[in-house]
Amino acid sequence: MNMQNKEVYNFQSEVKQLLHLMIHSLYSNKEIFLRELISNASDAIDKLRFESISSPDLYENDRDTQIQISINKEQKTIIISDNGIGMTRQDTIENLGTIAKSGTKSFLESLERNNKKNELIGEFGVGFYSSFIISDKVSLRTRFAGSPHNTGTLWESFGKGEYNVSDIVKKTRGTEITLYLKKEENEFLETWRIQNIIKKYSDHITVPIKIQNYDEKNKTYSWEQINKAQALWTLNKSSINEHEYKDFYKHLTNDQNDPLIWSHNHVEGIQEYISLLYIPKKAPWDIWNRDHKHGLKLYVKRVYIMDNAEEFLPNYLRFVKGLIDSNNLPLNISREILQDNRITQNLKKALVKRSLNMLSKLSKNDPKKYQIFWNEFGLILKEGPAEDSKNINLILNLLRFTSIKNNSSEQNMSLKKYISEMSKDQDKIYFITADSYISAKNSPHLELFHKNNIDVLLLSDRIDEWMMNYLIDFEGKKFQSISKEDSSLSKITKEKKIKNDEFPKEIINFLKNVKKILGDRVKDVRLTNRLTDTPCILISDSNEMTTQMAKLFSAAGQSVPDLKYIFEINPKNNLIKKICSISDTIELNEWIQLLFDQSLLSEKGNLDNPHEFIARMNKLLIK
Fold first, then answer.
1. Fold of the domain built from segment(s) 232-375
2. Annotation-wise, does 543 bind a ligand?
3. Do residues 578 and 608 lie in contact, with contact meaning Cβ atoms separated by under 8 Å?
4. How far apart are the first and last CA of the chain?
5. Of the residues 115, 446, 565, 602, which has the fewest C-beta atoms closer than 10 A?
6. Which residues lie within the region annotated C (predicted)?
7. What is the pLDDT of residues 159-172, one digit of tens each?
8. How far is it, in rounded angstroms, from Cα 345 to Cα 351?
């Protein structure tokens, strides 16, 4: 082989780490290497088909695209070749020497800790390196389609610390990978073994996969196609079994888990398209990363156009996997045109409805599976009310909560269930937001609701306060934060409106002293009957920003106005009665400041000056 301009490179440190994991501990199921390499070859052919729409010369007068596998038992090699788009010299260095994906380091660290390493690695999409599980050496010959024959590249490595790259002549476009097998991997030199693996993992690859057979009698070689090479989504639903749908999902996503549910639809009429949508069982490791790629695989008239087409689903449905194959979009469509395309908008409406209906079906037919979905993706779905007001009712039915009657942090209560268990006098859905489930569950705001057996939704995810701003009502019942003033509560608690003249003079004087000492730090001071055990509490005015919303603004670096609370005092509390009897003005002032700080700590979870609070408390304890 005529090689020129040979250079030796070191692998990026993350690649070395990954190769070490691959070779020594990663795939218990070694045969997956073939699935990964076939998948890469199929993608290369898909990319050629797409690029050739605008540049037909890339085909180099050969439109017969295929993947070929040949075995040489004497040399102990497997050769996997495709006549797809191919790579330039620079492509091989960038694609096979580095992993340019954010979060790589943290991903590899989690790999080291995780027992299900084979599940994570497929998700990460570095299938080429799986070649080294069964190979001592890997050699790759490639040439970018449409470039001169003498611009081919040879990439070689023993999977240790380095690889070398040379210029070669390669007459055919595409990529050819030669695997030099380890001594103990001879099983993969058997044609029947390779055929079984292809049928198991790659039967529905749309490109013909052919294996080279040798006829001992006639001493001749021939090529035999071993996969169906028919796009699964184009088949009639009745002809596809459950196992095939699951296998196709794994091929499409690199996820090793079965999907929870899927929806396959052929739509005809003004809009002609096929959609195949899946709901995964497990969230990908990088779903919260800013550069997490999501969206559907897009085909136009069976021609692959692009991966991760985000334009067909909103951000709150970024966990939905699958593809869309449209007959109406132009073949040369770009991401920019997709965004402003009327057909795209119509498809998006239909796919959003289909996705939400699929989840509705899952929640009704298989609550256990829906709970698996909610535990993985509930936080993402909670973005829906703010993003998609048109489908708010569908989304509301899919939300899950925990509540005081639930007595568990697991969010498994639907709004329908909450309403079905309400008393006939209750006309609101009560909720509280807090930093944690424990904090919400033990809030003094709940005392009145416990006393009257009224259920309250406990919301402790960071997104909850923001989400609740977009939830106005559900089936005619308005949402009400219990940390806000609510004059209608007395209707269901049957508590009489509290009157100051019903209480001893000491209480009324105490109320005046509190107003005088706290001054404009509070909006109002008043007696309350909403407490049973707690001496006092802070609530927000019905028109004011809540504490949790202020925390969200502050965390986002936005300025927050000073919150002015209503300070409510429980006149039946023994501590309040005791403090009312204190005649020493200085000591009374200390107690009032302490009560206010206690309430502030309970409401906000922190104080501006905790040391002053501790010093005041210690001083009063000594007395």
1. Ribosomal Protein S5; domain 2 (3.30.230)
2. no
3. no
4. 95
5. 115
6. 552-623
7. 888 999 999 999 99
8. 10
Distances (CA, A) of 259 to 245, 274, 363, 372, 547: 9, 19, 15, 11, 40
What is 4-225's CATH superfamily?
Histidine kinase-like ATPase, C-terminal domain (3.30.565.10)
- Over residues 261-282, mean pLDDT: 95
Cα→Cα distances 606→9, 551, 601, 602, 613, Å: 54, 11, 5, 8, 11
Report how far residue 294's alpha carbon sits from residue 297's, in angstroms, rounded to the nearest whole number: 9
Q: Establish whether 83 is an annotated binding residue.
A: no
342 labeled binding residue: no
Determine whether the annotation assigns residue 585 to a binding site: no
Q: How far apart are CA 60 and CA 143, in angstroms?
A: 12
Check: CB of residue 262 under 8 Å from CB of residue 271: no
Q: Answer positive or negative: Cα dihedral of 534, 538, 541, 547.
A: negative
Q: Is 3 annotated as a binding residue?
A: no
**36 has binding-site annotation:** yes
- What CATH number does the domain located at 400-493 have? 3.40.50.11260
402 is in an annotated binding site: no
Pairing status of strand 273-279 against strand 261-267: antiparallel
CATH topology of domain 500-622: Four Helix Bundle (Hemerythrin (Met), subunit A) (1.20.120)
Which residue from 477, 476, 521, 529 is spatially nearest to 500, judged by alpha carbons?
A: 529
What would the pLDDT profile of 238-249 be if each residue is shown by its tens digit?
A: 999 999 999 899
- CA dihedral 518→522→523→527, nearest 10 degrees, is -70
Q: Are 570 and 534 in contact (CB under 8 A)?
A: yes
Sheet holding 522-527, edge to edge: 522-527, 565-569, 536-539
The two tokens of residue 332 are 């040369």
Q: Residue 278: pLDDT band by 50, 70, 90 thresholds?
A: very high
Quick one: CA dihedral 129, 134, 139, 145, positive or negative? negative
Residue 175 marked in a binding site:
yes
82 marked ligand binding residue:
yes
CB 257 within 8 A of CB 282: yes
- Does residue 22 have a known ligand-binding role? no
